[in-house]
Amino acid sequence: MQIDPFVAVAILGLVNFVKSFGVEGKAATLAAMLIGVVLSVASKLFPADVVQVALIGLLSGLAASGFYDIGNMIGVKAAK
Hints:
Blueprint: H1 5-19, H2 25-45, H3 48-65, H4 70-74
Helix pairs in contact: 1-2, 1-3
């Protein structure tokens, strides 16, 4: 079994998006699991090109809206 890195990053970004609505604790864990299952199943059901385009769009949207900032997620401080 191989986990696509784009799927893992998309899950991370989507879970942070869900958390922005106040979802915390066990509900956030459940959301992460459900998002992971849905994205993993979708990656097997649809052609690779469709999944890749969808993930790129998803990650681009998350980045543009500020929900996906890997530096903040892992605690890296920007140099000033």
